[in-house]
Design a protein that fits this description.
Elements lengths: L2 H36 L1 E5 L14 E5 L2 H4 L7 E5 L7 E8 L4 E5 L2 E4 L2 E2 L26 E2 L4 E5 L9 H4 L2 E2 L3 E10 L5 E2 L2
Antiparallel strand pairs: 1-2, 2-11, 3-4, 3-11, 4-9, 5-6, 5-8, 6-7, 9-10, 11-12
Length: 191
């Protein structure tokens, strides 16, 4: 084989390798975009409204498909589009389900007149203020419409939540908060 043929063969091999590398990058980017669009999305916590569960600047991953195949459960931490500005995402704890009557009194959540008990995995006592500025569920029972939810921040004194702006339409649910991935010392499953 001549030098000219060797050079041509090496060029062909180099060209094929470049094409393979470019295609692998295209597939990797496509896979990430598909995952982000339909399955998992990253979010950053901007405020103290979910403290101590979530702190300012925590970075978390959310499962975006779960609410397309099943209903949310009480006490889950949900991510949703803010009803008054759907371009903003909020993170709160789901407290009230469609069709229930909800009331916040003496720091506790009452559903259909029954005081709700927190699950064992919520280790920090939650106290929900019934702020006079609130309009939904703080001055007597409020009925949650069908296809809507009621959510509160764990740090209720610093949280603008369903007490103030009302209900979250089901179509605004984005996903369930799953995992804190940053900072490393706070890494863990969200409950």
């Amino acid at each position: 084989m001549s030098n000219q043929q060797n050079r041509k063969t090496r060029k062909d091999i180099t060209k094929r390798n470049r094409k393979k590398e470019i295609m692998s990058w295209v597939w990797a980017i496509a896979a990430v975009l598909i995952l982000r669009q339909f399955f998992v999305q990253a979010f950053v916590i901007p405020s103290e409204s979910m403290k101590p569960t979530l702190k300012i600047h925590d970075r978390l991953l959310a499962n975006k498909i779960v609410y397309k195949i099943s209903q949310p459960h009480r006490w889950e931490i949900i991510i949703f589009k803010y009803p008054e500005d759907p371009k903003k995402y909020f993170v709160k704890r789901l407290v009230g389900l469609p069709g229930e009557n909800i009331e916040i009194k003496n720091g506790c959540v009452y559903i259909n007149g029954i005081r709700m008990q927190y699950p064992d995995y919520i280790t920090t006592p939650l106290y929900y203020y019934n702020d006079e500025d609130g309009s939904f569920g703080v001055n007597g029972e409020t009925k949650i419409p069908q296809n809507a939810f009621y959510a509160l921040g764990d740090n209720s004194i610093n949280s603008k939540d369903s007490r103030y702006w009302g209900f979250i339409p089901a179509r605004n649910l984005v996903g369930k908060a799953l995992f804190i991935y940053w900072p490393p010392w706070r890494m863990g499953i969200i409950r």
